[in-house]
Write a structure and sequence with these properties.
Layout (H helix, E strand, L loop, with lengths): L2 E5 L4 E6 L4 H10 L6 E5 L5 H13 L2 E5 L2 E5 L10 H6 L6 H9 L1 E5 L12 H9 L3 E5 L2 E5 L7 E3 L5 H11 L5 E5 L5 H12 L3 E3 L5 E5 L7 E4 L4 H14 L1 E6 L7 H10 L2 E4 L3 E6 L9 E2 L11 H8 L5 E5 L10 H6 L3 E5 L2 E5 L8 E3 L3 H13 L3 E5 L2 H4 L5 H7 L3 E5 L3
Parallel strand pairs: 2-14, 3-13, 9-10, 17-18, 21-22
Antiparallel strand pairs: 1-22, 1-23, 3-5, 4-5, 6-8, 7-8, 10-12, 11-12, 14-16, 15-16, 18-20, 19-20
This protein binds uridine-diphosphate-N-acetylglucosamine.
Length: 419
Amino acid sequence: MDTLIVNGGRALDGIVSVHGSKNSVLPILAATILNSGTSVIHNCPKLRDVDAAIEILKYIGCRVTCEDGCVTVDSRSATNLDIPDKMMREMRSSVIFMGAVLARLRRVSLFAPGGCELGARPIDLHISSLKALGALITEEGGSIDCRAGNLRGRDIVLSFPSVGATENTMLAATACTGRTRIVNAAREPEIVDLQNFLVSMGADVSGAGSSTIIINGRKPLHDVEYTVIPDRICAATFMCATALCGGRVRIDNVIPEHVSTLTSILDGIGCRVKVGKDYIDISREGSLSAIRSVRTMPYPGFPTDAQPPLMALASKCKGTSVFVENIFDGRYRHVGGLIRMGADIKLEGKVALVYGVKQLFGCPVEATDLRGGAAMVIAAMAAEGKSEVSHIEHIDRGYENIEKSMSRIGADIKRVIQV
Ligand code: UD1
């Protein structure tokens, strides 16, 4: 497995551009099956999870080509409706193919994506919503067989605004007769992006970004060309990196509203933040004060995915920062690595108390998961001395060549390819 070698202690300087959103492009790639035609998707990041989604599309029978961030999917010949366990396990969001394949082929047989590094991650809300739309679903030892039955639109009330369950319901609802109304829907920008993609394809979907999404199903769908939004978590990672390492960085290709909770935190602890139309300038010179409290919440609250990089930053802020992780119970796995580097963090259930230290020290650490891995990288960039970050396959799931973009703004970071 590849590793990253980081020589820490350099202030950052320069311009970095944010790639397309992983969490947008994955459901959009699944949705390309719906039109029985061609979808051209621009600003598609080169990530391991995107490769995994493309493999599933090809397995299903789609023709897929990728060139310079543009993925073209021809879904006319999609006929395979059983997705193997191995492909399902490759990434959690393979579950979104459930709603998409069901809508297009009226049957799908796949496997539960299982637990992951963030905890149990059940899919009960996905299953109950599709059942409520009329799908006939049987589950046996991890395998899930889903038949369309008589798919009819109706009100689906989610007990929690799950991002994935909202997406699966939207996709399945495009094949329902009549109107589906998703109540307590997730409001994440990626849901809006999926709606915009579906609308560009001819679907009748509205309300995304609010808690109620309405889908009038069975509209004729056509070929589509679409550009994915920038990745807000990638932008958040660059922002935290700059605040932690010091210096001055322009982060280009951002939708500032998508990172506004982080912007106000960084502004409040002593960073200089200038927000442009599609960029953010961030600089930090002196020391930063602690973050009073951060509670991860569904959007527009503070994103759980930005919690690990922000905690890496908090480890060097003066005073005590308080984190409350409300979304995933296994989302503190990066804490061990930060402590190894010299951070002073106490965990108690959902709460992490981060007592700021003067200095972090480079050492061998592991990327335990995608965002925890990003936290290790930026902590190593700020630490004194050399670090080796292992298991970076997790980081490659969601950051396109993290070493290249961080080097571009002055970090000393190299990938060592293990053969
Ligand atoms: C998506 C994002 C992920 C982000 C998360 C929360 C993608 C590809 N991934 O994941 O990066 O961290 O949103 O913003 O977009 N839950 C249930 N039952 C379900 C579904 C979810 O109990 O059927 C729980 C989960 O265990 C978790 C919470 O709801 O505790 C949020 O999960 P959800 O919003 O569904 O996250 P994902 O769609 O998996």
